[in-house]
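From the pipeline queue, job 12 of 40. The input is one protein chain; the requested action is below.

Action: predict structure.
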Amino acid sequence: MRKLNFILFVIIGLSSFAQMEMPAFFQTGVQDVSENYGGKAELKRIIDYHMQYPENALKNKKEGNVDIKYVCSDKGLIVSYSIISSSDKELETEAIRLFKLLLFKPAVKEDQPVAYEHYITIPFSISKYKKALKRRDKTSANSAKLVEDTSFVIHERADKQPNFIYGTDSLLQYISSELEYPQEAKVKSIEGVVVLSFVVEPNGFISNLNVEKSVGGGCQEEAIRVIGQTKWNPAQKDKKLIRCRMTYSVVFKLNDGFKDNSQGTQRIGGY
């Protein structure tokens, strides 16, 4: 009888364990799957500005996709990850480095965040990589030869905060000259503030652009387009270049009969 009770206890225990563990890896009927901030568009931008194509892979013309399976918790944290498909070992290493730069949103089920298993594809194309290199602004105002922090930790504060490479006033001028008032927002008389958060990486380019507040009408897409092209002097802490989170606001204001930005009707603000 005791032996039977023990067996039943083990079976019940294993069943409870399975019920407890499975939701961390398998969720069905979710409203939204887990994905990186900004989805595919932001992933492409990060690849364009942050990929470091392995030298040997370039020389030997190695290309292809690296597929990474991951488990994202209900807090948006990556619990585990593994390579499920790859064409080259060196490409795997770079794909994992890029993957670790990403921030993720959890899946949503019944309006609640849940843990979820999903996958992401990092594509490697030599022609696209070389084309992207031409778009990277090599200019940097940092004269100090500082070592980059490779821990992937994102800091909120630093000994020296990030700043736009040509200065704060120049950032406002740059945005004013580049940003175009979306046609839909003009037609619908949409005004307001788009608040973006992002990470300034040690190389001065930004990653993980995320919309914290939007007003619709295409305004958030335009704000992302313009801010996504900026380059910064990276943050410094303990004499190292670090990853640092920032928030920036873009104010859309219509004046004088819906004139476009070329007529100076755009008011931009940042903090």
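Job complete. Residues 126 and 220 are 31 Å apart (CA to CA).
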